[in-house]
Amino acid sequence: MMRWICRTDVLPVLIPDVDDSALGNILDQLDGIVLQGGTDISPESYGEQPIGDWRGDSYRDEYELKILDYAIRTSKPVLGICRGFQLMNVYFGGSLYQDIPSQVPGSEVHRSAEQYDKINHPIQLVSGTLLERLYGNLRQPLVNTVHHQGIKDLGKNLDVYARSEDGFIEAFGYNKEPEGKVMGVQWHPEFSHTQMGKLLDEELIFNVFYNYAKQNRNGN
Length: 220
Fold this sequence. Notes:
By secondary structure, the chain is an alpha+beta fold. It is built from 7 helices and 9 strands; from the N terminus they run ααβαβαβαβαβββββα. It has a 7-stranded mixed β-sheet. Strands 3-6 form a two-stranded antiparallel sheet. The longest helix is centred in the first third of the chain and has 16 residues, at 58-73. It is globular. The model has no long low-confidence stretch (mean pLDDT 91).
């Protein structure tokens, strides 16, 4: 993730686990927030009990929800990726499938432990949305897929930008901000290099976030 974000005029900063009294001062200095992938969201974070071994990381959830809440309250750009995308949905009042294979029989393969970031599937772009404008020229846009959880109930004030062919939400944006300023994607754009040339151009997504971050830096 750091390598994907880092470029000539961009400095990635890993936010440390600090007390609330120090966290605000750190976040004040940032021009945008990327919520990256990782361990599952705890079911307790969206009012459910675990159905199996997928207990998630409630401590990380709580900390990252504070960061996201700060970003929303202060109108900072946000890009949520995989876990970050799911966390955004929870923040806005949505819920998740704790395990797609067991809860949604007949769904596509969305995660392979053996192939990891080397599998993909098509997505369907919602007409008139940001992603349709970015990638509407592609006959069959493909994304990687490294997740066994997914959105069940969509959070409030979120507009769907894309779905998988089996109906799961793959991207959305917060409609109380300019389109794409607060956006989440289920796939991993930072992993796109492992399937070079097969997947949609992840730089177009980054550039949306980057341009909003520049505007934030300049006070616009």
